[in-house]
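Page 37, top half.
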Amino acid sequence: MFKPPKMLKNKNIFLFIAFIYFPFFLFPSNTFSAEPPLVNFTFTESFDNFPNPERGFHRYTIFRGLQQSTVSGLRAQGISLILGVTIVNDYKDKDFDAALFNQLNNAFNVVRNAGL
């Protein structure tokens, strides 16, 4: 069986790749160079004092079993963030179950309804 020299084999690979990519260099596409249209926004000036959700005061709370009464008055106190703690020691040797996810979803809904 005839084996081509290694140098000839590499040359054939180079020519094959060049042949495949040549049309892309010959006919470049303009789809990537088009700039999106500019959008103008007009904002209304406001002097209202509102809590910044990224820099506001926060409160720690346990998320499992969270009740609406726990978080209902926090927004009025200037609290805009909740740091929810979920203790999952029970799941050290097993997967999370649907009950845990339901408790977390309930806690997220309670926090969302409180405006936090």
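Page 37, bottom half:
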Amino acid sequence: MAVKGKQKGKAKEEEVLEVEDESKKSSNKRIIIIAAVLLGIGVSAIAGYFFIGGDKETTTEVAGIENKKVQSIYFRLEKPFVVNIQSSGRQRHMQVDVTIKGKDQHAMDTLKKHEPVVKNDLNQLFGSQQIQVLQTQEGLLKMNEDATKTVQSFLQKEIGSPGIEQVLFTNFVMQ
């Protein structure tokens, strides 16, 4: 019987050793997995920093002149344009609020000085539109492009450059 007790004791020791080995293996696996996850997060953060470019602003210099971002200037024509448009023998109305976007202060000053002429030119453009065309997105975009070209043409005559980027319709109503 003493022999059986020793064998049982050895079996218990082997079981304890196996359990300890398994727990060591699983804790080693956990450590490896945690390290891999942390490494992946670190690599992702570093890659993201480099791809996005960090917090530094990049500027280029050409012949000693620093390239600075010029802020847009907006010139709002105070009163909205209200024009009559003929549509199948019926009188229709269109109201347009206009703001002009540019980056040249001299051009904006010129527009302010000659605002009545600019308003007249835009009023003629808006009054010549057809309601069926303006009811489409393409027609509205075309009128916007035409308004931009009208103002640029005026500035070209006055100051020798187009001077503005775009005419913006900040409010547009047709009835």
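Margin note: The longest strand covers residues 90-102.
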